[in-house]
Amino acid sequence: KAGLLYFGAATDTPGQRERAPYPQSYAQYDAILNDPSEFGQTTPTNGQKWLFAEPQPRLFNFTEGDYVADLAHRTGKLLRCHALVWHSQLAPWVETTTWTPEELRAVIVRHIKAVAGYYKGQCYAWDVVNEALDEDGTYRKSVFYNVLGEEYIKLAFQTAAEVDPGAKLYYNDYGIERPGSVKTAGAVRLVKMLKDAGVRIDGVGMQAHLHADNHPTAEDLILTSEGYAALVKEVAFTELDVRIKTPVNETKLEWQKECYQKVVTACVKVKACVGITLWDFYDPFSWVPDVFPGNGASLVWFEDFSKHPAYDGMVETF
Ligand code: XIL
């Protein structure tokens, strides 16, 4: 579509999807998901995360991740893989153990070798490190950072590059979509740090969990993307959703449509922007209402499977 490599939607295993409103919803949901004319790419919203992939030391489980990987193959979609090293949805044992630097290095390497090794050749891209930055652009004080400092980021990318040389290696974060922000500056610093160390990084993923009533302009998104593209080969919008403060009304849906359109405009305009991924596509399966009470309707299909104005809005913009 219009110079993009893909337009996709993330999805989850049926057991993880929440609040399915009525039994037919799965069939209707799957029909959209399986339709190659809707989405050409997918990402597992949960299945490949540490909590699921290595819940106990050396106990690897790919059942959840495979559900989405198999769906991608079956329906001819590109697969973005998500995420190798992240402070959240981390297996509890990683956080509760007191590690020496040497031990934690070995744990990270073992995890990446096993998970990226298992999916080798299947992932168009890997989110190698996710959300390593705090809101002020400094490093987040995760167990990884506390024990190893920024070295853990280099180690993760180096290991992923060795294990799956064909996958594009991404740094992925939220709140790094606007050009002037301290967090965007932090992401630029992080990328430069890797490059200065001679460590391979191929892309920056802007999650783009945006707000209908206060969203970046297309120019903002273009400027930010071009900033990253000066350092890495590609950028992508990896977890796009646009939350609305409930109750939903036509005005807010219009703002939402404009926001989705701006992301499309920016990605089409920026040569390095390879694609856009919605963070699921069906409102009842969105993470937004659970995590941000008072917000909802952030995706493009309503509960009754009618489409938000943003759907046609994006189609027109491409
Ligand atoms: C979310 C999932 O969508 C939820 O189902 C889960 O409960 C929490 O995580 N940034 C990320 C994603 O990188 O992995 C998160 O996904 C949303 C924020």
From TrEMBL:
Instruction: Give a Gene Ontology cellular component term annotated to this protein.
Output: extracellular region
Any one GO molecular-function label of the UniProt entry: endo-1,4-beta-xylanase activity
InterPro entries on file: GH, GH10, GH10_dom
Q: For the GH10 domain, which residue ranges apply?
A: 16-317
Per the UniProt entry, the Enzyme Commission number(s) are: 3.2.1.8
Please name the pathway.
Answer: Glycan degradation; xylan degradation
**SUPFAM superfamilies in alphabetical order:** (Trans)glycosidases
Predominant localisation class: secreted
Subcellular location(s): the record lists: Secreted
Q: What is this protein called?
A: Beta-xylanase
- Organism expressing this protein natively: Parachaetomium inaequale
